[in-house]
Design goal:
Layout: H1 2-21, H2 32-47, H3 49-64, H4 72-96, H5 99-110, H6 112-116, H7 132-136, E1 147-158, E2 161-170, E3 177-183, H8 197-205, E4 209-213, H9 225-239, H10 241-244, E5 246-256, H11 258-268, E6 289-292, H12 309-319, H13 327-333, E7 346-351, H14 359-372, E8 377-382, H15 395-420
Parallel strand pairs: 3-4, 3-5, 5-6, 6-7, 7-8
Antiparallel strand pairs: 1-2, 2-4
Helix pairs in contact: 1-2, 1-4, 3-4
């Protein structure tokens, strides 16, 4: 019986390791539960590798109390596990050595503006520079004495509806600080405003005021109600900018996955009254956005040559139908539908091993933005990175998030210079 358990566990570990490098679920044909399972296991094992190795080492220790290692099958299994750990460590080593190449890519796209942007948070350059403490204990992101976190600040109330946001801000009492509007992911049907606690805590420590907002979920609502909720939040932020020390003329949007989709629409539909019921005259302009592993193409999943079962079912729920039954709603929700000739500078970040969103989606969005917008646009492809790589303070996050900070600092510096001139 011990041998059977050992073989099942070893085979399971092999499959989970392979899934990190190449998702076992196919995003076109797999069901949503299968795709979600493949993504979650690949994400957790890939980004929380130290914890995964410790867990497996503990299980190996338990097996050592049996006689499994007195047989060749035991030693063979041990070699298989060690090989898997080495392969996963090699993956992180490649990510660890990628920032220099990524920096050159950003320089090619943004030029001297990128070189002149001074960020306080740099990717680790050596093993000693890695923040091992936060990697092993993600809750430490809330313990920064430089910041204040205000939870569940209400920004909209209507009948029984109450929408809330979290505020991350420096403890200093400065005014006219740059602001960030953060939109969580969760496929428009779930999510938490605390998903981006890592990046928001860090940006607050660098002098930014960050607002992590929540919106209502489908199927209780259909698009464009999600976008309207986010615009309500931005309207509230600008009205209360003085109270929280925010510069109302400099607020950028950030978001991951479905939040990246909504952040892109915030940039593309600024001050559109049809998305501002009750505050049609309100200012909802933003000065830039960063989209992390965002969803931008809402139509390709329905094409026969590119059928995407799980996304078709999801979009049918979120938009209340298909492109054939509610075409005007799909046009409203599609970032490709809105002209980008007044799009502010944006940065798209996409993982090379994303189970849920193909790299080609961000590449097409970037090409469209660059061809239409007069403002600088950037695309950052992160090799071997999975969806939601920024949730935990993992090595991947420590290597990639500094690029987001530097881009936002660059954008702020440019606008400050324009004000002076």
């Amino acid at each position: 019986m011990v041998t059977i358990f050992f073989l099942v566990w070893t085979l399971g570990s092999v499959l989970l390791t392979l899934n990190v490098f190449k998702p076992l679920a196919d995003r076109r044909r797999s069901s949503f539960p299968a795709l979600l399972l493949s993504y979650v296991t690949g994400w957790l094992i890939g980004d929380l590798l130290p914890q995964w190795i410790l867990l497996n080492a503990g299980i190996l220790l338990l097996f050592s109390f049996s006689d499994i290692f007195s047989h060749p099958i035991g030693w063979g299994g041990l070699i298989v596990h060690l090989t898997g750990w080495c392969a996963l460590t090699l993956r992180l080593w490649i990510i660890f050595n990628s920032p220099q190449r990524l920096d050159k890519k950003m320089e090619q796209q943004l030029g001297n503006s990128w070189n002149n942007a001074a960020a306080n948070f740099n990717p680790p350059e050596s093993i000693q520079d890695i923040n091992w403490h936060s990697w092993f204990n993600p809750n430490t992101v809330f313990d920064d004495p430089r910041i204040e976190i205000i939870h569940d600040q209400e920004f909209h109330q209507e009948n029984d509806l109450k929408l809330k946001l979290d505020i991350y801000r420096p403890r200093s009492s400065k005014n006219n600080l740059p602001g960030i509007l953060q939109i969580h992911g969760g496929a428009w049907i779930s999510g938490s405003k605390r998903q981006a606690a890592l990046s928001m805590s860090h940006m607050a420590a660098q002098g930014w005021v960050c607002f992590s907002v929540v919106h209502r979920f489908s199927p209780e609502i259909v698009f464009p109600e999600h976008l309207i909720d986010i615009k309500r939040a931005l309207h509230w932020i600008k009205k209360n900018a003085g109270e929280y020390g925010v510069d109302p003329d400099f607020v950028v949007a950030t978001g991951g996955s479905a939040g990246g989709h909504l952040a892109s629409l915030m940039a593309l539909t600024q001050n559109r009254p049809e998305f501002q019921p009750g505050f049609e005259e309100g200012q909802t302009a933003i000065q830039g956005f960063v989209g992390l592993y965002g969803v931008y193409d809402l139509h390709s999943a329905f094409r026969k040559q590119n059928s995407h079962r799980s996304r078709v079912r999801l979009l049918d729920t979120v938009l209340g139908g298909t492109p054939d039954s509610v075409p005007e709603r799909y046009e409203m929700a599609s970032p490709f539908h809105w002209p980008a000739n007044s799009l502010p500078s944006c940065m798209l970040v996409q993982g090379g091993s994303d189970t849920l969103i193909p790299v080609s989606e961000a590449e097409r969005m970037h090409r469209r933005n660059r061809s239409q917008s007069p403002n600088p646009q950037a695309l950052l492809r992160v090799p071997l990175a999975e969806h939601a790589f920024d949730i935990f303070p993992s090595l991947t996050a420590q290597c990639v998030l500094p690029f987001m900070e530097r881009f936002l600092v660059m954008r702020h510096q440019i606008l400050l210079q324009q004000k002076i001139q």
